[in-house]
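FAQ: What does the model actually see?

It sees only this:
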Amino acid sequence: MEQKPKYTILGGGPAGLATAHLLARDTEAEIALIDRAPKLGGNAGSFKIEGIITDYGSHRFHPAADPHVMNEVKSLLGDDLLLRPRHGRIRLGGRWIHFPLKLGNALKSLPLPFATSLVRDMVTGPLRRAPEGPATFSSVLLKGLGPTISENFYFPYVRKLWGLDPSALAVKLAERRVSGSSVSKIVMKMVRMLPGLRGETTGRFFYPRKGFGQICESMVESARQNGAEIRLEEGIERVERDGNTVTAVITKDKAGVETRHESSQVLSTIPLTALLKAMHPAPPPEIVAAAEAIRFRSMILIYMVLETGQFTEYDAHYFPEISIPISRMSETKNYNNVTAPEGLTVLCAELPCDPTDPWWEMSDDELGAHFQQWLGSVDLPVNVPVRKVITRRLSHAYPVYDVDYADHFAVVDDWLESLDGLVNFGRQGLFAHDNTHHAFAMSFGIADCLGADGSFDQAKWTQYREKFSHHVVED
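And it is asked to produce this:
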């Protein structure tokens, strides 16, 4: 009898979960998914605070998803996948402006000097020269968008998100994070949102009725029902290899019991730096050195429970000002338009930082006090009782695209790709600035590259990788 292929999936975030769901449903393979957390979903999961479903920051499922990805999510959630209008605000020129930008609101709300400078940047764009020296995130944006929107929005915002000056960030970050490469294109996006010109999903997003994590929860249920083995609270002790062939993964559960997993392919979505550290024997010194030069930006999520049904009507607020350390605040009840439980709401602030920053060691109450102070400084005073403040710390929130990252990543990525029996993918695995729908697209690609005998089509995967490299983040 022909033996079924076995796949060991490392990491239970969106990419790992979607892969387990697809392979368990569509193949005869044996699937084992391993995650050190007690619950699957990673940063795309949800949890409850005081009975309110809350996400790990602001999450939306974007209509820009590939059609096959969108159809998969719709089939899993059915009527629970809501199409909601985007209704956020951003601080520009010291004033609150609707986000995504709307033409009428922008013309009405932008300070006259700010608006005048934007018009000037648009008119002079074709004549603008790129700054001298090697291209960086800073130089590309100054050339394309001009100084007004760059210096008042993008530059302070990225300083907060990545903790680096824009001139120290790579061009690739601009390609992945900035969809409007000129003022004219930004204006045209606003024009397409006008009544009569916008499509069904323009200015809208999909959001599950029971929180963003409902997408991953539906995939967990599907994977389990189709026979996948889900192993939670198991850490990866080592990934064994014999030369260039990965032979097994050794895990240890919370009781200290080790398990050896041998498989046709190890499908890894954990941070590539963590994967390198788990390799046994260790990679060559030059590979280790390159991995040590790669870093991720961390984040603290500050959740403040307020004794009121709604704090504002807006789903999200964006804070470009460098004087406000948080980058974004969301109110989940405004995402899925729920009212229960009555008289309570939760605000979630995103505070990008590093574990070496003072914020990381602060107590929940200290961070909550700062949160209230920051809101008050931008005309959002908290005038209702605060029931409680809790926090969550994310160690790998964003990959840092500094000017040297591409060289270091290439060294590590080339070595990992040279190994048989291992495929590295997902946001953390490919060091990618991606949305959840991009992670799902990678899972479809993985499933397409796996043969019925457990083989992996590396040439086809290379083509998928090229496509993935052009993903642009939807904010």
